Amino acid sequence: QVQLVESGGGLVQAGSSLRLSCAASGLTFGSYVMGWYRQAPGKERDLVAAISSGGNTNYAGSVKGRFTISRDNAKGTVYLQMNSLKPEDTAVYYCTAGSSFWAPTRYWGKGTLVTVSS
After folding, report:
1. C-alpha span between 71 and 55 (Å, rounded)
2. What's residue 32's pLDDT?
3. Residue 70 and residue 55: Cα distance in Å, rounded?
4. Are β-strands 107-108 and 45-51 bridged in parallel, bridged antiparallel, or unpaired?
5. What is the pLDDT of residue 65?
6. Are 20 and 112 in contact (CB under 8 A)?
7. Mean pLDDT score of the chain, rounded to an integer?
8. Rounded distance between C-alpha atoms, residue 100 and residue 53, angstroms
9. Is 26 left (phi over 0), alpha (psi -120 to 50) or beta?
10. On the chain, which terminus has fewer CB atoms closer than 10 Å, C or N?
């Protein structure tokens, strides 16, 4: 059974940083594209960033230069370092795994809430 478990969310002030982690189990981690999606209240779920097994990355324009996705294949973990957070980054963040570099959506975690106050 595939499990993706996110951690690291919380309440922070604008301009702060947070690092999200996602521990994966039940899959051959190194074979999957890993991603982070987010869903703000009343909005659709959108891709934030993705990383291939080889380390190629893909970012949404709204987070490019502020967020960094990385992975540790030995630990089966993917990270999202979020800097210079803005109130509009407030959302539930979901860890995902899949085969598509542009939409890795085969498996989903349950999400972790990030709230950025102004």
Report:
1. 8
2. 97
3. 7
4. unpaired
5. 97
6. yes
7. 97
8. 11
9. left
10. N
CB atoms within 10 A of CB 62: 13
Which run of H or E residues covers position 82? strand 77-82
Q: Which of 116, 115, 114, 111 is nearest to 4 (CA)?
A: 111
Residue 65's SS3 state is coil
Find the helix or strand (DSSP H, E) in which 23 lies. Answer: strand 18-25
C-alpha distances in Å from residue 91, one per residue of 6, 24, 54 = 14, 21, 28
- What pLDDT does 102 receive? 94
pLDDT digits (tens, 9 = 90+) for 72-98: 999 999 999 999 999 999 999 999 999
Q: State residue 57's pLDDT score.
A: 98
* Two structure tokens written together for 50: 């993705």
